[in-house]
Amino acid sequence: GSRRTYKVQIISYFETHKLVVASDITELYQLAQIRRDFIANASHELRTPLTVLKGYLELMSDMPGERNPQWDLPLEHMTTQAVRMQAIIEDLLTLSTMEADSINAESEPVDVPEILKQLAIEARQLGSDEHKIVFEIDTHLWLKGYAEPLKSVFMNLVANAVRYSPEGGEIKARWYQDKEGVHFAVSDQGLGIAQEHIPRLTERFYRVDKDRSRGTGGTGLGLAIVKHVLEKHQAHLHIDSLLGKGSTFRCDFPAKFALKAK
Ligand code: ADP
């Protein structure tokens, strides 16, 4: 059809006047749509062949007696890489579903304390035992939102804190409400991030240290997912960091989404 998309800006000038500018962004909008579809289709198409490869790798790994031991290490590497590739594909799919606005379902009361309790258990398995992970949770604080996407936000932030801080470092995750709203904050005593990188961290595949990040099992998409999910909750990601000292990643949710459980 001939539906067109406009971007409308209202600019104030001379304090008394307002200028309304409408720009036709139909082509841009369509291009973005094509790009989204392409990423979604490509990720989807890659899933099946990868599943086949992984299946055979598992089969071979399960039959150590049937092969020359010199294949042990290559098999292990291939399995690691296949698992990584799968994680990247799943994250790309998650991102494109979110971009397609398909979380149009009604938001619902989310038992965040329960999600975090679960996460606290998973986090200990995920990090080496060398990290001290502390959770401070307001157990009466629920949120109006989307449970699964929120869970991946919390998981991504805690996983990063583990990934980018040294053994022995303390990681603190807090879920609380104050005058400004509802917050989930994760602090670590890790590498920290130089100021100039901070605005770009939520871009897909943006990494401060490419080589280091690849080795840590991240997909490079974690913070991009975090940003998208937060947008769906009218929330913002606030990043505070000091190089060599550590970082705090804080999600700020509007107070109007807070729900108080008994
Ligand atoms: P990755 O899979 O590479 O961790 P993310 O999107 O989760 O991808 O993060 C993007 C980049 O931001 C990381 O590669 C890392 O350089 C930086 N980063 C994220 N979290 C932290 C943190 N807690 N401390 C230091 N750097 C971080």
Automatic annotation (TrEMBL):
One of its GO terms (molecular function) is kinase activity. Its EC number is 2.7.13.3. Its main location: membrane. Keywords: ATP-binding, Cell membrane, Kinase, Membrane, Nucleotide-binding, Phosphoprotein, Transferase, Transmembrane, Transmembrane helix, Transport, Two-component regulatory system. It is found in: Cell membrane. Residues 41-257 form the Histidine kinase domain. The keyword Membrane applies. It catalyses: ATP + protein L-histidine = ADP + protein N-phospho-L-histidine. The keyword DNA damage does not apply. This is histidine kinase. The lineage of its organism: Bacteria, Pseudomonadati, Pseudomonadota, Gammaproteobacteria, Thiotrichales. The gene is phoR. The chain holds residues 170 to 431 of 431 of the full protein.
